[in-house]
Amino acid sequence: MPLRELVPGDTNGFPKVDIVAIHGLNPSNSRDHAYDTWSKETADGSSRLWLRDDLPSVAKDARIFLYSYDSFPALTQTKKRFTDEANILLSCLEAERDEEPDRPLIFIAHSLGGILVKQAIVSAFNNPHHNAIRDSTRGLVFFATPHDGGNKKLVTLGATVAGIVNLVSRSASNDIIQAVTSGSLYADTLYDNWVHRLADCPIVSFYEGCGNIVSKKSATFGLPGSMENVVRLEADHSNICRFDTGLQADLDNYKLVRTNVIRLYKQAIGQRLPDLPIMVPTVSSCAGEAVGSEKFSQEDNKCIRDLCITDPRLDKERIEKTKGGLDQGSYRWILEHPDFQRWRDNHETRLLWITGDPGKGKTILLCGIIHELEKLDAKTHLSYFFLQATNSRINTAIAVLRGLIYLLVDQQPLLILYVRKKYDPFGESLFDNTNAWTALVGIITNILQDPNLYNTYLIIDALDECVLGLSELLDFLIKTSLISPCIKWVLSNRNWPDIEEKLRRAGNKVGLCLELNAKSISEAISTFIEHKTQELVK
Question: Where mainly located (predicted)?
C-alpha cells in the first residue's frame, strides 16, 4: 500500500481525523522521498519528521499518513497516467478508511504533489464511487504548489516545473517542459474543474519567502481570507515543509504551519474556534440589491433575488403582529424547561421536536426561541421558516429550503458560491423546474457541511402545513439532523401520525409535547392576557 501510517491517532483505535501528506516530484526516484520531503536532519545527526514527531502532540486524535508514489512518471507523462495516479490515491484512501469512510480528511501537499491532490478531488467529484472522499475532505494545505494553469499560462508553468526538476535533480529536463507546455498534463480541464471545487473546503497556501522557484502568485489562489489563508514561510522550495525545531528560524516557520493545520483539524472535528473572521449580514431583502457591501457581485445579487421566495424575517414580524406581539412571558417557560436546556447544552442532542394540538401556541413559542437565539454572539448563524398552508408561496418543501438557504447566505456571504455552482448553468429556472428539490438539497447539504458554520440553528414551524413535498422534507430533516454537531434543529407540528411516524426515526432528538406541559402554557396565557390588559389600561 502506498499509504504509510505514521501516527495511529487515538489510542483506543478511533481517530477523529485522517491527515494525508503527499510529496512532489522525485526525479532521482529516491526510495525515501516520501519521508525526506517532510524530514530535516538535526544537529545531533537524527532526522526530525514534524508530522510524526511534533504534530501529534497538538492533534491527538489525528491519524497521519504519508503517501508514497512514483511521482516522476505520474507528473511528467500523459494526462491519463496522471489521472490514473490520482485514482490510485483515492482507492488507497478508501481501503484504509473502509471501516469509517466518513471520517474527516485533510490533505497536505508539497509542490507538484498539490497538483495530484487537486486532480484527486476533481476525480472524486466526477466519480460516485468516491463520494465518501469528496464529502469528507475538510481541509487542503499546499506548500509551494504551482497552481497556475489554463492555456495562457502553460509555458510559465512549464518553466516552473523545469525549475523544480533542476533544483531537485541538478539536471535540466526538456521532456518535462514539453510535457507541460503541450497541455498533456496541466490541461484546461483540470484547471477549470478545480475552480468549481474551490468552495468546498478551506485552503491554506504556504509560499516560499526565500528563492523564486514558485512565486507567491503561482502558489496562491487569490481567494477571500475566509476561504484561503495565505502564509509566507522564510524558507526555499525544498525546505518549506521540513523543520528542525531546535533552530529558531525553523521553529518560527513550524509554529505558523502548526497553527494553520490545527485550525483545520479543529474545524474538522467540530470544535469552535474563538477567533474566526466574522461575516456580517449584507442582504437587506429579497426585493432589492445587497446593500452596503462589496461581498456580492451583480451576478450574486441576481442569484439571491431569484432564490428568495420570501424573507422569513418579515414573515416572523407579520406573525407576531397578527398574534398581538411577542411577550417574553408567553415563552419564558420553555427556556427553563429541562428538555429545551438539554437540546441547547448537549453537544449530541441536535433536534428539538415540539408537538401540540392547534391553538397551543407553537408558532409564538418558536418566535420566542428565535428571539432568544438572535441575542447570541455574531458567530452564531440562525435560519428559520414559517410554513403556512393557505399561502402557496410558503407551503412547500422547496420553499422551506429556499428560505433557509437565503438567510444563511445573508449571514455568511461566501456561501453564495454553493448556490452559484448550481445556479449559473440554469439561472432562475433552477428553483422551479422539475429538479429544483434535488438541486436545493445538494446546495443546503454542502452549506451545512461548510467548516465556517459554527453554532448554526435551523428552525421550521408548522410542518403539518407543508402542502407539497412533506414526505421528502421529513426524509431530508432526518438525514441532515446528524450532518454536523454544530447544526441544531427546532421543528414544530400538530399531532399528526404521519409526521410522528417519520420523525420518530430521527436520532439524537428530544421531544417536547405541549399537552404534557399544560400548566406552563396556561400560565403563559395568563401572563399574556395580564400584559395586554395593562396595555389597555395605559
Answer: endoplasmic reticulum
